[in-house]
Amino acid sequence: MTGCFGCHMSLLDIDEKILDLIELVDFDKSPIDDIKKFTGPVDIGLIEGGCSTQENVEVLRSFRKHCKILISVGECANTGGVPHLRNTIPLRECMEEAYLKGPSVVDGVIPNDPDIPLILDKVYPIHEVVKIDYWLPGCPPRAETFWAALTALLKGEEPKLPYELIKYD
Ligand code: SF4
User: Fold this and answer.
1) What are the helix (H) ranges across the chain?
2) Other beta carbons less than 10 A from residue 16's beta carbon
3) Cα(59)–Cα(77) distance, rounded to whole angstroms?
4) Residue ranges in the chain whose pLDDT is less than 70
5) Which residues touch 84 (CB under 8 Å, ≥6 apart)?
6) For ligand 1, is residue 80 a contact (CB within 6 Å)?
7) How far is the CA of 23 from the centre of ligand 1 (A)?
8) What distance in Å separates the CA atoms of residue 44 and residue 29, rounded to the nearest whole number?
9) Which residue in 17, 44, 103, 167 is a FRET match for 32, CA 20 to 30 A apart?
10) Beta strands at 67-73 and 119-124: parallel, antiparallel or unpaired
11) What is the C-alpha separation between 99 and 111, in angstroms, rounded?
12) Given the CA of residue 81, which atom of ligand 1 is nearest to it?
């Protein structure tokens, strides 16, 4: 959602284990297979990014509706991350700076097309919008963290993230 796609890239960093994962799961709605809509109920959903638009809210609610287990992936989803730095500035000021007063703006206008997702007053961590079952920390979480959490859940176990997977120095 509102993130940088870095968490997706980190998932792909499990390298050849992606082949093992494909043996264990069927992907549904995902940028990996480019399926845009859920084809049915799924066991595990992974969400990257915070919630900053009406469209994000709809995507998030759709994930919650279709996924038995929903995992918040990375700091943008967990806390709002870098995008939520805008929360200290009123939305009107953000819009004016971006579209009217910014140094690169010429003849600016604030967009108001119904096809553009409505921007929320703040960037919200996703657990403030829907119930979340697990959180993967990091910006992005390490590939090994994805692997540890997913393989545990697939075995019906609670994910355990040892200190080595959640330290960042
Ligand atoms: S948590 Fe970090 S890597 Fe993931 S989407 Fe946010 S900024 Fe990108």
Assistant:
1) 6-12, 17-24, 54-66, 74-79, 91-96, 143-154
2) 6
3) 13
4) none
5) 50, 76, 122, 123, 124, 125
6) no
7) 27
8) 11
9) 167
10) unpaired
11) 8
12) 6
In Å, how far from its chain's centre is CA 48?
A: 1
Instruction: State the distance between the two ends of the chain, measured CA to CA, in whole angstroms.
Output: 27
User: Nearest C-alpha to atom 2 of ligand 1 is from which residue?
Assistant: 139
Q: What is the pTM of this model?
A: 0.92
Interatomic CA distance for residues 169 and 162, integer angstroms: 15
For the chain, give the number of residues: 169
Cβ–Cβ < 8 Å for 83, 33 = no
> Quick one: pLDDT at residue 31?
84
Q: What are phi and psi of 46, to 5 degrees?
A: -115, 130
Query: Residue 18's pLDDT is what?
Result: 86
Quote the pLDDT of residue 63. Answer: 97
